[in-house]
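Entry type: protein chain
Record version: 2
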Amino acid sequence: MLNTVILKNNYQDSINLMLLTNKINEFENVTMSQIMMGTDANKDILRNTNLLTTEAEAASANDLMIVVDSEDANVMEEVLPAVDEFLSDLSSKGGSEAKAASTSWAEALDALPDANVALFSIPGEYGAPEMEKALKNDLHVFSFTDNIAIEDEVHLKKLAHEKGLLMMGPDCGTGIISSIPVAFTNVVSPGNIGVVGASGTGIQEVTTIIDRLGGGVVHAIGTGGRDLSDKVGAITMKDAIVALENHEPTDVVCVISKPPAKEVRDEVVQLLQSISKPVVAIFLGEKPTAHEGKVYLAHTLEETARIAIDLANEEAVKANYLEPIDKPDAPVLPSDKVVKGLYSGGTLASEAGMLISEALGLEGLVKKEGFVLKSHGYEVMDLGDDIYTQGKPHPMIDPEVRINKIREYATDKDTGIILFDVVIGYGAHADMASALLPAIEEARQTAKADGRELHFVATVCGTTKDPQNYHETVKRLKDAGVFVEDSNAKAVRLALLLKGIEFTEEDKTVVAYEGETVEVPAASEKVMELLTTKPRIINVGLQSFNESIVEYGGQSEQFNWRPRANGNKKMIRILDALEDHEEQIAADNQKVIDKIQNAQPFLVDVVPAKTVIPELNEEQKTLLHAGPPIEWANMTKPMQGACIGAALFEGWATTEEEALQLLENDEVRFIPCHHVQAVGPMGGISSANMPMSVVENRAEGNRAFCILNEGIGKVLRFGAYSQEVVDRLTWIQDVLGPTLSKALQSTEEGVNLNVLMARSITMGDEFHQRNIAASLNFLKEMAPLITTLDISENEKYEVIKFLSDTDQFFLNIMMAAGKAIVDGARQGTKGTVVTTMARNGVDFGVRIAETGDTWHIAPVNTPKGLYFTGFSEEDGNPDIGDSAITETVGVGGMAMVAAPGVTRFVGAGGFQDALDISNEMAKICITHNPTFTIPTWDFKGTCLGIDIRKVVETGITPLINTGIAHKEAGRGQVGAGTVRAPLGCFENALEAYAKELGIDVE
């Protein structure tokens, strides 16, 4: 039985999740589990293991998928606490005073402005665009990330070369920059040897042997394993060689490469012959018979290291570096016994396979199902191959796959020797030797019970300065009866010696280089700066990579990366393409921002709607509604109920049945409020004789309108249409509206809403869910004026009493102000700033400056919050209303921190939650509005300028404070809460914007 839990927007590093998966798989009641991010690649893994559920299929790349196969129906009660504990432990590492990590490129570059390297350990499917971004920010790239398409690698390396940068990788597992160990790396003594390697464990083997022989390495520059392929052409290798030639502290250049393309190899050798410094090179798979010119060619990684040491010490290179090894005190194994190799390092596995094949005359290396050698019973496996690591930790981290293979080989009667490596250092298992020893002893006992001898031969790749300590690791293995040699080549020779086979090497002499030399290009200033200073690294991904950098004197800034746009590849492509238009977009957006910030909204009048909206003064019966366009048949029940109430109020019908008949017969035209410079709360239903506030934006000369707030209880905006509702609407038409109009007419300029709002936000209002201060400030402005009017004392009392009782009265005025502000900002502007957000109960619509009146829609969400007694979320209507105009201009849910008391009412928590929400909202906005400063936010201004690019990139959507209507008509408000705008409408807007700029979005 499959159990699935999706933790939304909970991005975690894949390596940590692999370790967590292994922990959960140890539970007795768990048949199988996978805990991974919801990327397409990971869903394929779930599909291939029959673990892909409907819930997992729907997850985004930033969602954490927990899928558990178990016969125990209650298994998740054990699994989820274990997951929570594991993730909590991760988040707490680094101490309480640890600096908060960056969550964007902008934050990271701001935190480390002189950064010169970006270190990547993120999923490969998202890697190339992020690396291109780093290169465009003049950062060298160190890509531990693998699974990058060869075409992308070529593009990135050409770009790096053009910009005078190094593109190290992809699949660059290790490196040393200015003696600082980077990534999965060993601590090697500083020295005068510079290494360039197209092989991770090849670099590790060579540099650690150099260290143990008393030498040192100043740089070990990884290129990635494909750099010397014919498609890539050794771009990074060549640039690194040129840099080391010009790097004064480097006396010896050491080149390590997996099997190269012949033409590329020849080009690299030609360059090496052309530099002034001595060179040792190994092209794995080749068996050189002589050295060429000034390039000393090695056969094994050990020989490479020993030649480098001699060159560094200015000693003569020997004809042969094959050192004697002691024959173990053990009888020679029968000829039918074979060697099995279980390697965590791919290059070490290849070297072992090569040496065994050469010694025994086998068919040579293969690359099939994880095998690098599979001939006549002899097998060498690279357990770091994708076939073993897809969805699982690398064998340098996790011993499980190797333990299983040891057990498997122990039962094979032909197995006489199991050869393996233990790679230590930063990033590797804390004590791999001890983790493997129980399985080794178990295997020996299995063989012994079968009357066979089974030997284990190991090599340890590391130094005494590594966290696990080389000598201690070797001692643990030897104490357990494992034969250990100090190089991989020697370990292979020892394994063969146990078979009675002596490995030999022919002497090599130096022969003249017959090719031509070339003029060595000038070194890039940026690369030379990298090689002559301590690295300053933005660590994009695995947090543990910071440890070695900081420990040995480098600087690092942690960037807790997560996929842009929730991993939506199409949106990522659009965002990347828009970066080429950044200057123009910024200029366009600034015009919108300036218009919003400089708006001057004044409440100047209250008038019947038909006097300012011509469409309501026509013969055709017309109602305005909230949100994007919608017809009667598609409206939710509360909006339909409000339509019935409006029909009764206008006298179009005398009964509910009559009203329904004319509505269902399409006798009423429906127009969105926004199409006629108006806005309406909840259902937004507005009709000809309803009084409307008139707000004038004097900066732009435009006006906007909104019906008056009806108060609380059963009201039209929530879908109620009883006689009580109609009577209140009539009173508003006959008394409240005219009274406010007369009061406003008696002023010189109306009510300056900027001043009133600036005062009220300091008193705890956010202008959507809480308007009590603004409503009272409005009453303070109106009451003296009302008392002087030539109307009855009873009417004066009724109006003032209504205003004082209606805490939310100012909301509708705020909505008209918001509409006046954004409509002014929309005039003659372009860009990615959101200028409208509105909901009709079915669709959520946004409009942006660039696309004018076009709606970009997606299905609405249902609010979450607190419900009145007797009601629950099941009773709530989907999100509805034009009141999201408040959030559009940066208040409401965007300014939750201004009204922390509201957070509990809307179910969001306490002050910290309010602060967190506003900080989150700031991440999707361009700037802050100094017109409305918030004391509880260190007097920062409200958020200003929701940017669709930021929304799509972060996956953070605007949070809207809202009342909750009952889903049935006539029941009214049943609660209050918050709702997220759906991401889809912002994605649609971004796509439309890109098309406006002529970008191919497909």
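Comment: The longest strand covers residues 925-934.
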